[in-house]
């Protein structure tokens, strides 16, 4: 067996149904599927049974321990030469496995990952969130699908690794968020080679509403400081941009409100002019950024509605991450607190 696909699941049987259906139409079939139910109350056992004759499928139920440890649980029970790690909310195009196989056959590598896209069937909110997580104007393009000169760090929604390398590194750590970046950092630090496979892309549903999206990116901001405390060299300039954006937006909104109040409460023309200038100076960059996001997303998604929702998604993504980053920096770097995460009771709600 060349490939083992490992999928941790928590209360998402409908997503697993779509995912397994996409695996039945793969043009290359030299793979097994390992489903690890991570203490779900709503299990996908019946869904897995439905595909038991169409796929080489193994189903396991275990107590809840988080996605990283569930992936390790699945890896211990997998038989493939390569382990492919997927989140349960991705759907695969029919040539996904073949794209991976072609890349490995042309240039062997120790670990790899692929990008993600939004499917036409996704809701407008999901498309907007997908845009905000992949656009150059929100993430600097670090999560897109283009090959870059610097290191590529696979994310756990779509990554693969040689089985023996996985075992030597003891798999994923027990970090609740950022565990995939932690793993990628350890891959590089151990001297292994890691590449981006641009054609091994997936449709990634991500979060279904902006509240869930906020909780996700807030924890991502926290995780970045947790990673910094473990690996100081991992913090790059691009990781600071959401924090800078958040602080900048707070300043601009404060300046805008101050300007409006000044205009409304001043009786002298000089102060009204000053208030007007303050308001315009603050509002202009905000409006220009919104216009940029709207225009680019509308073009990419061919939808004005998605373009408008992408403005909301971009601000949630950047300020959510920025707030989590600042919160974690204050608690861990200033106050000396231990590693933590937020929204533990409501993350999946």
From TrEMBL:
For whether the record's keyword set contains Transferase, the answer is yes
| Residue stretches spanning the membrane | 240-264, 276-295, 307-330
In terms of InterPro entries, this protein maps to: Glyco_trans_2-like, Nucleotide-diphossugar_trans
- Name a GO molecular-function annotation: transferase activity
Residues annotated as domain Glycosyltransferase 2-like: 4-167
Alphabetic keyword roster: Membrane, Transferase, Transmembrane, Transmembrane helix
- Keyword Iron set for record: no
| Recorded coiled-coil stretches | none
**According to the lineage, what is the superkingdom?**
Bacteria
PANTHER family this protein is in?
Answer: GLYCOSYLTRANSFERASE, TRANSFERASE, PUTATIVE-RELATED
Protein name listed in UniProt: Glycosyl transferase
């Amino acid at each position: 067996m060349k490939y083992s696909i490992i999928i941790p699941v928590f209360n998402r049987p409908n997503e697993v149904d779509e995912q397994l259906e996409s695996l039945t139409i793969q043009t290359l079939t030299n793979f097994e599927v390992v489903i690890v139910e991570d203490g779900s109350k709503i299990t996908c056992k019946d869904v897995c049974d439905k595909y038991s004759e169409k796929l080489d499928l193994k189903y396991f139920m275990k107590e809840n321990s988080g996605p990283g440890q569930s992936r390790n649980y699945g890896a211990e029970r997998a038989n493939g030469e390569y382990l492919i790690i997927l989140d349960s909310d991705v759907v695969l195009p029919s040539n996904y496995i073949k794209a991976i196989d072609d890349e490995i056959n042309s240039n062997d590598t120790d670990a790899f990952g692929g990008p993600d896209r939004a499917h036409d069937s996704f809701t407008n909110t999901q498309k907007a969130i997908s845009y905000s997580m992949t656009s150059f104007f929100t993430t600097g393009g670090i999560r897109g699908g283009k090959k870059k000169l610097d290191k590529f760090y696979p994310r756990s929604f779509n990554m693969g690794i040689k089985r023996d390398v996985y075992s030597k590194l003891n798999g994923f750590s027990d970090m609740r968020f950022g565990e995939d970046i932690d793993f990628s950092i350890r891959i590089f630090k151990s001297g292994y080679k890691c590449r981006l496979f641009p054609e091994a892309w997936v449709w990634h549903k991500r979060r279904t509403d902006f509240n869930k999206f906020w909780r996700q990116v807030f924890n991502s901001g926290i995780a970045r400081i947790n990673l910094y405390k473990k690996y100081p060299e991992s913090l790059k300039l691009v990781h600071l941009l959401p924090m800078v954006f958040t602080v900048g937006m707070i300043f601009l909104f404060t300046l805008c409100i101050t300007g409006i109040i000044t205009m409304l409460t001043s009786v002298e023309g000089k102060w009204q002019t000053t208030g007007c200038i303050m308001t315009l100076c603050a509002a202009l960059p905000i409006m220009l950024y919104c216009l940029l996001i709207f225009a680019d997303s509308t073009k990419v998604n061919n939808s004005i509605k998605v373009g408008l929702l992408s403005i909301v998604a971009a601000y949630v993504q950047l300020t959510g991450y920025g707030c989590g980053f600042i919160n974690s920096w204050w608690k861990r770097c200033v106050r000396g607190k231990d590693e933590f995460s937020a929204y533990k009771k409501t993350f999946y709600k």
